[in-house]
Amino acid sequence: xxxxxxILSGGGTGGHIYPAIAIANELKLQFPDAEFLFVGAxxxxxxxxxxxxxxxxxxxxxxxxxxxxxxxxxxxxxxxASSLLESKRIIxxxxxxxxxxxxxxxxGPLLQAAGSARIPTVIQEQNSFPGITNKLLSKKANxxxxxxxxxxxxxxxxxxxxxxxxxxxxxIDIDTKRNEAxxxxxxxxxxxxxLVLGGSLGARRVNQLIEKELDNFLLQNVQVIWQCGKLYFExxxxxxxxxxKVVDFIERMDFVYAxxxxxxxxxxxxxxxxxxIVGKPVIFIPSPNVAEDHQTKNAQAxxxxxxxxxxxxxxxxxxxxxxxxxxxxxxxxxxxxSGNIKKLARPNATKVIVDEIKKLL
Length: 361
Hints:
The chain is an alpha/beta fold. The protein is built from 14 helices and 13 strands. The strands form 2 sheets. The protein has a 7-stranded parallel β-sheet, sandwiched between helices. A 6-stranded parallel β-sheet has the order 10-9-8-11-12-13, sandwiched between helices. α1 crosses α14 (349-358) and α3 (71-94) crosses α4 (107-116). The mean pLDDT is 92.
């Protein structure tokens, strides 16, 4: 049996890292003898999270362009040239059969180098609106696995495969883990649990909202798991108490989802895909600070299917307490949202993506 080799690249945020790890795990299941190497950006969170998942990773000296003129931007051409040379060296030494990119700064030079070396490449695009890197890489890619329809205006139509986003397989059966999850967090099984997800780095506006509403939640007999992100943990850890669990990062996503009755979340593509599988009532608060406002588009696709509630940051002060209280009191509405968001789930996305990768071997 041939011993295959795969290089995967995805990083910067959990939304790029975890899809790459999910794909690697599925490939490993199907090809137990395969060799894996991840390539990330030095100093980014993938340099910790990938080794924790059991994979080797090499770092490139690469960062994104800032929106204003900075020293970082002036260094960008040098970093890009250095990363391209290093990517070529990695590919020459490792000799992969296929290279897979899930987004993030490092996937650009790596997939570019793989394409130049005529090694098959696969792009996994999580968002409804692709970033500039994937648009450029798509011209040479062999397959582009997407989670949303109508991406022909960005990518060559004949290469697009609608797969959904890869998600952690431990989310598939969270219903069986509720008691264990409640115990793990030391929660009260008789109270409703609100889960707040601001993304791996955190979301300032969401954190400000939760800080302002915390007393209201407690008055309504709601306990809170509040993921404030590592950038904000020092500011908010003071609120940690019996009914409020403040965390910077969540390792056991299956447990927080199992414990939650209602979820407040940003609308990054990976989060949206996970929430469809989890099937709990969600209030999306999309980040307005992302390219082409793609988080609002991600959330709107769920709202259009009557599977979630969407509140823009500009509406939070006037609308949030009314919307949250109404949802908390209305079991029928909660069940309707749960049922509808679950219909949009693609639990087999990772296997379908791996099927596309296998076609290139």
